[in-house]
Amino acid sequence: MNQGDFKEAESIFQELIAKGELVSDAWNQLGVLRVRQNKSAEARVCFEKGILENPTNPAPYSNLGALAHEEGDLEKATEYCQRALQLDPDYPPALHNLGVIFRKKGDIWNSVKYLKRANRAELRRRRQKRTR
């Protein structure tokens, strides 16, 4: 997907869903693909299906937050990101999204706070991956 091969990426995600493997993550990634294709309504459906498959996965909540932010609904965006952080308090994308949302709201202090937390959380996760 990162190389722009959306067709192959979609095929892989659909295959995982059909096999019942990593279904929540596959729906989430399919939603990200739809966002890149400028298909927001379809992306929302994918993220929601990801949540239905695994309500404890913070990724689709965070992505719904980013989508709501892009659509201008900052309150809903905040709610989705905070839900992701209830599931994983150090989830870097949700922390980053909240930083961006608070910046848009004009709350610079909270924006910086969340962006710094996101950076620290991402660095910790990278270190943990290297030591495994």
Description of the structure:
The protein has 132 residues and is mainly α. The protein has 2 domains: 1-55, Serine Threonine Protein Phosphatase 5, Tetratricopeptide repeat (Alpha Horseshoe), CATH 1.25.40; 77-132, Serine Threonine Protein Phosphatase 5, Tetratricopeptide repeat (Alpha Horseshoe), CATH 1.25.40. Helix content is 81%, strand content 0%. It has 7 helices and no strands. It has helices spanning 6-19, 23-36, 40-53, 58-70, 74-87, 92-105, 108-131. The longest helix has 24 residues, at 108-131. The two termini are 26 Å apart. The model has no long low-confidence stretch (mean pLDDT 95).
Top keywords for this entry?
132 residues; mainly alpha; Serine Threonine Protein Phosphatase 5, Tetratricopeptide repeat; 2 domains; 7 helices; 0% strand
Counting helices, strands and paired strands, the structural category is mainly alpha
| Overall residue-averaged pLDDT value | 95
What is the β-strand count? 0
* Count of distinct structural domains: 2
